[in-house]
Amino acid sequence: MSQDIILSLCALAAMVVTGLNYQLGSERQWHKKPWLLFFKGVTTGFAGLLALYAYVQTGQPHALVMALGIFICAVADVLLEIHFLAGMGCFALGHVAYIVSFWMRKTPGLPSFLLFGGLVVFVVIMVLRLRKKVAFSIVPHGLYALLISGMAAAALEQSALVFLGALLFVLSDAIIARRLVFPEKDPWDRACIILYYAAQFLLAASLLFKY
Predict the structure, then answer these.
(1) How far apart are CA 43 and CA 49, in angstroms?
(2) 6-65 confidence digits (pLDDT tens)
């Protein structure tokens, strides 16, 4: 078994342990809030370390930018629990780094631009439909949705691991959006966090494995 596979599995195992401490610790009140914030952020941080390792191994600049994006998201994980809009803004910076990393790896072509156009239409329709149904300004959330749509579109023509990671990220954020619009419904917290951490791991692993 190669060193890359071993270290990737170690990173995944570490993410499972700290991720469970965050999610189950929150549900069952195992830890106080500072520890929950630590476990939440450090889980994403392990994916960032895997991406940083990939940069050291390959010397590819796009790997360093991806690692930076993942570490920014680790900070956003914590900020989101303290001030939601600040956390969302920080995540937006992470997505900018992802888009730059994807673009450095392979310039998006027509399929990516077509997907982005379709997603823009969808986001605009949803914003127009929901703006009078929620008690908060939906504009920042709409702008964030456009940015993550760009991230998903840029990932379309990358490797399968990259696109799957981007897709899982979109699904995780869709669950958060659902929670904001319909707070009375089941929040699907476990599904949201599993999809999110899986997305970060896949994006980091894609730097080592060309699938």
Answers:
(1) 10
(2) 999 999 999 999 999 999 888 888 888 899 999 999 999 999 999 999 999 999 999 999
CA distances from 1 to 5, 89, 121, 209 (A): 7, 40, 46, 14
Render the burial of 29-52: b for 16+ CB within 10 Å, e for the rest: eebeeeebbbbbbbbbbbbbbbbb
Given CA atoms 167, 80, 43, 206 in this order, what sign does their dihedral have?
Answer: positive
Instruction: Return phi, psi of residue 152, to 5°.
Output: -65, -40
Q: Could you tell me the residue ranges of all domains in the chain?
A: 3-205
* pLDDT, tens digit, 9 for 90 and up, residues 65-117: 999 999 999 999 999 999 989 999 999 999 999 999 999 999 989 999 999 99
Answer whether 72's CB lies under 8 Å from 101's CB.
Answer: no
The amino acid occupying position 64 is: L
What gap in Å lies between CA 159 and CA 53, rounded to an integer? 19
Q: What is the rounded CA–CA span in Å between residue 206 and residue 190?
A: 24
Among 124, 72, 117, 121, CA closest to 95: 72
